[in-house]
Amino acid sequence: MTTERIADHIKFAYWVPNVSGGLVTSDIEQRTDWGYDYNVKLAQTAENNGFEYALSQVRYEASYGAEHQHESTSFSLALLLATQKLKVIAAVHPGLWQPGVLAKFATTADHLSGGRFALNIVSGWFKDEFIHLGEPWLEHDERYRRSAEFLQVLRKIWTEDDVDFRGDFYRIHDFTLKPKPLDLPGRPHPELFQGGNSTVARRNGGLYADWYLSNGKDFDGVTEQIVDVRDHARTVGREVKFGLNGFVIARDTEKEANDVLREIIEKANKPAVEGFRAAVQQAGNSTLDKKGMWADSTFEDLVQYNDGFRTKLIGTPEQIAERIAAYRKRGVDLVLCGFLHFQEEVEYFGSKVLPLVREIEDAESGSVGAPVLASA
User: Fold this and answer.
1) pTM as predicted
2) Which residues pair with 1 in a beta bridge?
3) List of E strands, 27-103
4) Could you tell me if 240 and 209 are in contact, meaning their C-beta atoms sit under 8 angstroms apart?
5) Domains of the chain, with CATH numbers?
6) Distance from C-alpha of 88 to C-alpha of 85, rounded to nearest angstrom
7) Beta carbons of 296 and 310 less than 8 angstroms apart
């Protein structure tokens, strides 16, 4: 088995800080703000510094250091209307959205933005949000079965007329959406992202999504997931792109970068991290093979709540560029970046790290063979 394909150029996305507290659950100083004005400026900075995508987070109530949050779909549309090139991905939960209604919203956003709106289908890890809103809470594999139907319904509504879908979770009868999303070259409908670590998440990603998003991983961890997801895609004649989460600490010296990491962890908001761990690890450990998200995450991993430290994008621009290039050779198509001080660090990344990545890619052009599968 191989990952089969290496991207010509790896793409970059950033987490939209539309949730208070930034991307780490720590009391360290963060020059990042969750408000609209800050995020508009950040989106414009990002698209002018080589970032092609942004991902808006979704939480519905105060929790684990995230006391305030803006809703993801409306916030994403606002950022799209304030930018020219950036693609913005809105995270959404099946069970809290009806797929036909979301398909309509997404189509409108797609037209208003010239085809730059995308969705990340989040199967749901935070039980209290569903319970407090009076919605049923499904067990892990059932949540992913629902997401599988959700992804199928979205795609059918966007590409077909007189849609009829009869699943266990959604029943659509003779439904036609007009207008359809913009039919752009290589992209007949808004891109569909889906994340996860578990066996059923990988199956969903391979069979139904355009992109699979992984929590932070080392080289072996990411390769194992890529192989699995693409094996599922191959069974139905599809191709799925792969995105990897990573928290970036790029500094002029390795010592500076490691000092920042150490300070983030030393100043962790321990009650918030422990509360988050208790909430999420029941989800990962509820899978039969214990491959679910966060199942083996340590306290230090969860200070960055998507295991972003594990990707080890921490050091000098040269060290980070080399590691990103190595992930590309293992089949990663996109790196989803988190930062401590977003505005200035996005600029630093764009001026110092990204050009080095492109230099490595250009030097390897035409000489890269099969994807690397061994440890490094």
Assistant:
1) 0.92
2) none
3) 53-56, 87-92
4) yes
5) 11-364 (3.20.20.30)
6) 10
7) no
